[in-house]
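Q: What structure does this chain adopt?
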Amino acid sequence: MRKRPEKFDRRALRDAKALRRLGVQRVQSAEELSALHDARLARFARADVDEKEWKHLRHCRGAECPHPTCSAACVFGERKELNRVVRQTRRLLKSGQGSQRFVTIIDPTYFLPPGRLNEFSIGGLVQSLRRRLREAPDSWKSARIVGAVDMAYDRERNGHEWWAPHVHLAIVVDADAKEIKRVLKPRRAPPAEMVGRVFRPVVVKRITRLANAIGYSVKPSVEGRKAILDSRGNKNRKPFEIPAAAQLEHDLWLLKLKPRERSILSGMMMSRGGVVPRKRRS
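A:
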């Protein structure tokens, strides 16, 4: 068994412990984070990635970060930041006005083939979401939303593969599921190759465990999803191990991001003291 890193960030350990008590399922231990960290560094080394781009990660073992800037490729730094977001936003969403919903948004205009993930703009996707929120009814001004841009690697039944970014949100808003779908539905028509495919651009579910829903919305790793037909002949997806080249491509993409850059807050903001409420502008 891998030993816990010495001098691991105590605040990060407290946040992780608090999330487990709240029933969050995807909370990695210090040992699991160390294993992910070592595997990522090994992939960089095997691929002869310029060490100048990732040498700062060699010095990180989960203690307080010695660098003023870091990247989302540091599993310790990103998890520390996002676990804190989960813990602090749970309290604010719990006290919010309206129904608690878990929302997944799929906009295939952002899908990319393997080898082109570096062309994906998180900023573009998030700004399009914020434009839709600004156009929402007045009742949405009290909405509180937390989530993240999640990256999946999809394989169709014909073998076609692509990067499929999508958004997971935990949301508290005075609106029913039908209105949530209308407000959050992407405005652009899907690409020609997606026309005729069966997919739902917005999926809305009731939240039964708030902390776990928030935790899932900022889950840490890329997942492969292979298209299958279930026993009823309906299209579904099941996990599969993504190709090594795609895993490295995802690592390099994270290397260009800040630790909290994938996360989304609306109706709340990050301050020096943590996450605090903020009303949407009129």
